[in-house]
Fold these 3 entries.
Entry 1:
Amino acid sequence: MNATGDRSALQRRRAQELGVRPEQAAPLIAKEAGLPFSEEPNWHPDPASVAPLAFLSSIHALPLSCDDGVHLATTWAPDASCESWARATLGTKPIWTIVAAPALDSAFASRFGVAAANLEGSGEIIPEETEAEDDAGDDAAAAKLVEGLLTRAAGEGATDIHVEPWGRELAVRMRVDGELEPVPLPANAAALRRSVVARLKVLAKLDLSERRTPQDGRFSAEAGGRRFDIRVSTLPAVHGESVSLRLLETEATPPVLSELGLPSAALNAFSEATTSPHGIVVVTGPTGSGKTTTLAALMRSVMRPGLRAVTVEDPVERELPGAVQVQVRPELGLGFAQVLRSVLRQDPDLILVGEIRDRETADIAVRASLTGHLVLTTLHANDSAGAVERLRDLGVEPFLLASSLRLAASQRLVRKVCPDCSTKSRLSKELLLAAGKALGRTPKEDGLRKGSGCRFCRGGYRGRTAIAEALRASASVRSMIASRASATEIRALGVTEGMVTLPEEALRAAEAGITTLAEAALRCADAHG
Ligand SMILES: [Zn+2]
């Protein structure tokens, strides 16, 4: 990474060390440097009139509107070389102000778009689009744009970046807290669209000349002071290739169970189920519901030096220190079932199966759990009782399932209300009734909150938390499974035995002001009956 954003990375790192947000670390950094801190910077309307954009980008500073002298806002105290560069460029000694990294970074992005300052003056050197394939390779402007995108994604905590050709335009969107949002781009970005795609393909070591078939690759990069493993996939679309990037922070240790924000009923059920040395624990939920993270946290809670842990994953998403992790390669005939069969010859105690998709895998997993192994896995099913039905549909014998199942859980992620701008939420009777209908009962109005949107959040939300229901395989639940009872009957029994359903947990989270009623209904209403 070049200097762009480095200062913000320094501030974010200091904030992390202090265990606070950058907004709280910035005043301390200012104090240490003997510089003023501005909470709400009054940005100069025309930064280019104050200093060359390339310079401002390089030192990661933006001018403020002031009558006396040149005021530059930045996120980390300038060193001597920065000072002298600034003085030489501006012809005067600037007056520095420290601001919070998110404020400066979003000011950069909203004023110029990602990395736009790097593209200054490049209008004349970017060739008109041609069909030639080689002008793309190491196009410096595209490389900087890609770098700027990665820095921004790291800063915002994005999980995915999508580079999409829209007609002759280039669109870039990022997924943050599960929501897609457009990334502002410089005006000349459209002309770079082929080069940006080519740059990403080069990074991921893909075949540049192949534009008609989908390709997959990966690369690692440092952005915003953190290391990422980035999976890249291309899809040939009508107007050119669409490229998707999935960002996985490599050195981030998986969270432990208690850090997921799970409701206490589910947390207790998980802890109880994983004390058993054998059996199968299933977590269900749609894509993006956080079930893989929960599985990793479960693994962490069970693993100890005396146990041999093996994982079979597609793909291996994060490192689990102490576990042997295997990636399935269906193209080489190494699907989940085949790998799992080999794993069983490797004397494992604990097995993580990334996902059960077919009968063979389901059979092997269930049999393994009956022969002294603890198996943790995920499934696509709407709710916890639905997991039982799904396994039976895949062809698992009900009596085998009844004896092996320890726990079936279902999970969703909901966005959390921003604590900095939330207020009591007043809803009309109609909305309360509608939400009540979707979630199973009318909510109590007292604790409902919602955010109005502020500089710390996105539209009133900041971060996400897990909501889950957990069906314990009690003796009565097992006998119901063995007698081929329906998911509805099993769910009803689970509730009488203390299971708090997903919609009910979501309602409680809304009533506690953790999330909004709208978000609870949006994410968790489908897990109802
Ligand atoms: Zn807020």
Entry 2:
Amino acid sequence: MSRELIKLKKEGKTQKERVTYVLFFADGAWVCGEAFLGGYIPTYSQRVGDLIKEGFPIARSTCSNKLHHHDSSIGSYKWDFSMKGTVNA
Ligand SMILES: [Zn+2]
């Protein structure tokens, strides 16, 4: 688990704040939904949806990491630094 996730577990107040930090600090890398579950953010999917609605530049896809063995398809998300969001974070 990354240092950011551990820090957020301690300091992140809401699940939405933790989702924001995890994505931002991933530095443009795709973050599998499992990482959010590991960071105690069970509602990550809804929270990402909220952030996108608010104008944050977040891209959504399905996790295609072959090293992950999900029972079902699971979302993957990234902060798209090339995308112009309407919110400056
Ligand atoms: Zn995955």
Entry 3:
Amino acid sequence: MSFWKVEGCKAGVLTGDAAWNMLKHAKENKFAIPAFNCTTSSSVNSVLEAGKELNRPVMCQFSEGGSCFFAGKSLPNDKGVLQASILGAVVGAHYIRNVAPAYGMPIFSHSDHCAKKLLPWFDGMLEADEAFFGAHGEPLFSSHMLDLSEEPDEENIAICAKYLQRMTPMKLILEMEIGITGGVEDGVDNSGVAKDKLYSTPEDVFAVHKALSPISPMFTIAAAFGNVHGVYKAGNVVLQPELLGKFQEYATQQTGTQNPLFFVFHGGSGSEKHHIAEALSNGVVKMNVDTDTQWAYWEGLLKFYKANEGYLQGQIGNPSGEDKPNKSYYDPRKWVRESEISMRDRVKESCRDLSNVNA
Ligand SMILES: [Zn+2]
């Protein structure tokens, strides 16, 4: 069945039942939808362009730092208030909502990791969702992530339950994290955490399901299976996607429902293809991609610069003549576009890795 046949599917941002139906469709068909961290309208456009070219759904997401950047790095963003991060996330989500239909694909609009100290950002986004819901009958975003994985499990789960209660009337999807994704992302450094925190247990994961499923079925779990943010040389943390299968088995035994969990794969950059395939077969419906598309965006510019170095040293004068103008090389539309093309192609590669392609 084509994803276009999923109930509620349309070109533009998917929310509520339509968004959840799409994730269920992904799980049943063993593909995942990649979510790309965006920091500008340019990076959003790159993701949407790839979705349009592939004719597949894609996700755009904003981290707290990325949200602030979207609105403008110079704006005040006070600790505990995070007004620029709230503004940037809301503006970014409106931007996606407005352009997505023109690209002709179903799009998810999501916010990434939110640690305890960043909860004012989360609250601000939910207020915007509630206002949008009041006016249009659906939330502004498709989904949000809470990441209280640094807190004790009981506190983590209790805060998630509290927020899921607030999100449920709007049918917003909650992504939560249990266990810790290693490495460094968006200024959060988990490279020194104890190894056992990098692997969740079936009991840890089931505790989440037990607490959240009576509130709403619309939640996904970023469980830890040795995944690490960023790309590093092969180290002593080993990716074990087979663990996700163990979590499903345990949850199946406890609930009597076959494989009831929906997983999110963080730290997927640089993963081997067979690990990704195993993760998909164990219920991963979303995989985050940031580091690899950051590199792609940069590499597009790098290659452009190297190929045109002689034309980029001043406004006038290049290898074709001392008095020749270089405007057509340093116009930002020229070199930013090279970044966009490179990122677009990397987005398409992630879609192929996750079997998010038309057979
Ligand atoms: Zn992550």
